[in-house]
Every structure is written in C-alpha cells, then in structure tokens.
Amino acid sequence: MHKRCYRITVTLQSPLHINGGTDADGTRIPVMIGGKPYIPATAMKGVIREKFSAYLKMMGADSCVGKESAESPCHCPCCVLFGKSGFQPSRIFLDHLTVAQDSDPVLSLRTNVAIDRKLQTGKNAMLVGTKVIEPQNRQHERMQFSGEMTVWYAGDEDEMTKTEFLLVESIKSVIEIGSGKSRGFGLVKTEVMPL
C-alpha cells in the first residue's frame, strides 16, 4: 500500500446549490456547517468516481462485476479505489470542502416555477425559491472551497502511478457539481495539489 495526500480546491464559476433541505417557508437552502456553506465529501467523491469510471470506459478498462450484489467483490480499478457496497471499503478518505475562515459567502435567492412531477408541467401560480452561493464573496474574491484527500493505492509502483494519474485527471475534470446545472448553477474549476 502507498499513501498519498492531496489538497482539492474548487473555485466557483457560477452560483452553486447543493441541497440541504428547506426553510420554514419552503425555500431550498444549501448545506451549511456553522452558518457557512460547504461541499459535502460524499458529493465530491461521487462526482470524482463518475469521472474516473468514464476515463476507464474510454480506455476499455472498465470491467466492473457484481454491482447488483453486495456479497460479490469486484476487482475493477474503480471499485478497488472507491469501494462498493458490502465489505469492499473505499481507499479514498476525503474531507468536506469548506470555505476559508475569513471568507464571507454571499447567498442570494433565485426563483423558478414549481413542476408537477405527475403531469410534467409547471404548476400555475407556484414559485419555488432556491438559495444559492454566489461565485464571489463579500470581499469580491472568487469563492473557493478546499479540503484534504488521503488515498491508499494498491499494487506495485507502476500500477500506483497509472491509478494516481487517472485519479488526478478525474479530479481536474470536475467542472460541475450540485443541482440546477440546467439553470447555469454549479460550474466550477477544480484543482488538486499533492501535499
């Protein structure tokens, strides 16, 4: 096993919303810790896994088996690194991505028409409010979220180098996160640095 640590930084290019529930008035609010928004580790890890799996498929190396069954282990590169349900734990440990202590995020309210899921149409006279994190904070700087990631790579040095390259490229290729992407929310620039 080879241990490597990284710092992931996500810079907002557009407003961001990662749903943390609703207010008393029905407004959707972003996830918050201590009154400040953050990007949950599970959300970030899920997006990275999706990109990693896509790269494997492009290379013709995705041979994942046993997705339906928690009892069957899978030895594909994606499941080895990210784990799978059952008794195959992840080798990636990621912190929540948080804003700097001195950063003062700006939240604004965006509205859109409520959708009737059954009829697939807009509901008359029904607006839905969504609080989003604006791409610039009160200091007029780009909003940045950052956190640390620890990875335990398996295999020999050559295999570890290939997996690390693929993982780093997957992280850098994350350009969208959160909900409301069709409305222009969640565009980001993602950087990763070894520690």
Keywords:
35% strand, 195 residues, 21% helix, four-stranded antiparallel beta sheet, alpha+beta
What does this protein look like?
The protein has 195 residues and is of the alpha+beta class. Helices cover 21% and strands 35% of the residues. It contains three helices and eleven strands. The strands form four sheets. The protein has a four-stranded antiparallel β-sheet. The chain has a three-stranded antiparallel β-sheet with strand order 4-5-7.
Total helices: the number is 3
- Judging from the principal axes of the Cα atoms, what is the shape? globular
**Average pLDDT reading:** 86
For the CA atoms, what is the radius of gyration?
A: 19 Å
Oligomer: single chain
Structural classification: alpha+beta
Helicity, as a percent range: 10-25%
CA(first)-CA(last) distance: 18 Å
How much strand content do the residues show? 35-45%
By DSSP, the count of extended strands is 11
Which ranges are low-confidence, i.e. pLDDT below 50, for 5 or more consecutive residues? none
- Strands ordered across the widest β-sheet: 6-10-1-11
Order of helices and strands: EEEEEHHEEEEEHE
Topology of helices and strands:
Layout: E1 2-12, E2 19-22, E3 28-30, E4 32-33, E5 36-39, H1 41-58, H2 77-82, E6 92-94, E7 97-98, E8 107-116, E9 121-133, E10 144-153, H3 157-172, E11 188-194
Antiparallel strand pairs: 1-10, 1-11, 2-3, 4-5, 5-7, 6-10, 8-9
